[in-house]
From TrEMBL:
The lineage of its organism: Bacteria, Bacillati, Actinomycetota, Actinomycetes, Streptosporangiales. Residues 1-22 are annotated as: Disordered. InterPro entries: Amidohydro-rel (IPR006680), Metal-dep_hydrolase_composite (IPR011059), Metal_Hydrolase (IPR032466), Metallo-dep_Hydrolase (IPR051781), OTAase-like (IPR057744). It comes from the Bacteria. Residues 61-396 form the Amidohydrolase-related domain. Residues 1-14 have a biased composition (Polar residues). Pfam families: Amidohydro_1. GO terms for molecular function: hydrolase activity, acting on carbon-nitrogen (but not peptide) bonds. Keywords: Hydrolase. The keyword Hydrolase applies. This is Imidazolonepropionase-like amidohydrolase. Coiled coil: none annotated.
């Protein structure tokens, strides 16, 4: 493969189209000016070969680059409260390394839902950081004592508004929530995240609590809609999920403890669900040695064993499912294992779609990424084998992913 600015036609390949769930051997795809210019099956037209550099992929699969819609690239530890005690420049350096590793696994776009900001996104866009396209929401909004309040019980004072590189912003009352939402949107945030329930990594709340009052949530939804953006909500229980969906939250993160009433509301509102199953497996295995506080470790079991059943229920009920991982600190190396976990419940084609075209729809990038449509950005991966028959090729990228392209340029290649 070449990084030449000339048009490049990839031949002798099987094109995997996630939108149709099909794979077409004996195909070709033309990349020009960083976008997909044409594609087809059979002999490449002479008009294409005459002006384009030819790259023979030897029968490998060519498919859209992957999208992880729930990452925390600044989370250098599972102790999220500890991040604010680090230098912002140190955290930025950590995030750059984390993003580079994600690109190497085949993820060409990621959505950060707490921590990353416009500066990191700009650094990626300008090539200062070699990573996937970064869709960011800034800081997640939390009530005092909520999932975004990472202070231990004995620490007082709520000043988290400065330059500190934390994932959450504490605010109380609809005026503060509205102001905080406007502040994230002012920086160019693609979404606003709000805490709807307790969580694992926060030290002082309960998993089964509901958080943020209805007036607070309405204020955030109103501001996001005014800016043509959307609200995503952290929530586990059916009570918290259903409340958020009724109030206009467009996407739910996690949702391990939903029930059938939640499924019906997802479908009714056309909302998205982003399960993050691999993070609970890894928190149970190695959370303590990656900084998860003791009071948080006891919460893991509450959500760990219900996650697959919630995924099954949502899949069978027709909920729009998107790929996400939510891994923290050193556990981020297990990002791709989410494919194997989901494959226990969903057909491979649906899992692939959740990490490509369906994720793109959530991010407002439908037709631009996660697809092989003409005119889409040429964010692509070359896979040795057929992921529709063997998801382990994506779950183990060191074995299955041969090359990663962003805007048609090879960014990673395995010999």
């Amino acid at each position: 493969m070449s990084e030449s600015p000339r048009p490049t036609v990839h031949t002798n390949t099987a094109l995997l189209d996630p939108e149709t769930g099909s794979r077409a051997p004996g195909s070709w795809l033309l990349v020009e000016d960083g976008v997909i210019a044409a594609r087809g099956t059979g002999e490449v037209p002479a008009a294409v070969t005459d002006r384009a550099e030819t790259v023979d992929l030897g029968g490998a699969t060519l498919m859209p680059g992957l999208i992880d819609a729930h990452v925390h690239v600044t989370a250098l530890s599972a102790d999220l409260g500890a991040v604010v005690d680090h230098s912002p420049s140190y955290v930025a350096a950590y995030a750059a390394n984390s993003l580079s590793d994600m690109l190497g696994r085949g993820f060409t776009t990621v959505r950060d839902v707490g921590g990353a900001d416009w500066g990191l996104a700009q650094a990626v866009d300008e090539g200062l950081v070699d990573g996937p396209r970064l869709i960011f929401g800034g800081k997640a909004l939390s009530q005092t004592g909520g999932h975004g309040d990472f202070r231990p019980r004995g620490r007082h004072g709520t000043d988290q508004h400065g330059c500190c590189p934390g994932a959450g912003l504490v605010c109380d009352g609809p005026v503060e929530f509205r102001r905080a939402a406007r502040e994230q949107l002012r920086t160019g945030a693609h979404h606003v995240k709000v805490m709807l329930s307790g969580g694992v990594a926060s030290p002082t709340d309960r998993i089964d609590s509901t958080q943020s009052s209805e007036d607070e949530l309405r204020a955030v939804v109103e501001e996001a809609e005014a800016a043509n953006r959307y609200v995503t909500g952290h929530a586990y229980t059916a009570r918290a999920v259903n409340r958020g969906l009724r109030l206009g939250v467009r996407c739910i993160e996690h949702g391990n403890l939903i029930d059938q009433s939640s499924v019906e509301l997802f479908v009714e509102h056309g909302a998205f669900l982003v399960p993050t199953l691999v993070t609970y497996r890894e928190l149970a295995r190695q959370g303590a040695r990656n900084g998860l506080p003791a009071q948080s470790q006891t919460k893991v079991d509450t959500v760990l064993h219900r996650g697959l059943e919630a995924l099954r229920m949502a899949h069978e009920g027709g909920v729009r499912l998107v790929f996400g991982t939510d891994l923290l600190g050193g556990m981020q190396t297990h990002q791709s294992a989410e494919f194997a976990i989901r494959g226990q419940v969903q057909p491979a084609a649906d899992v692939v779609r959740s990490a490509t075209s369906e994720a793109a729809a959530l991010l407002g990038l439908e037709g631009e990424v996660g697809t092989l449509r003409t005119g889409a950005r040429a964010d692509l991966i070359v896979v040795d084998g057929n992921p529709l028959a063997d998801l382990s090729l994506l779950a183990e990228p060191e074995r299955g992913v041969r090359a990663v392209l962003r805007a048609g340029v090879v960014r990673r290649e395995r010999s």
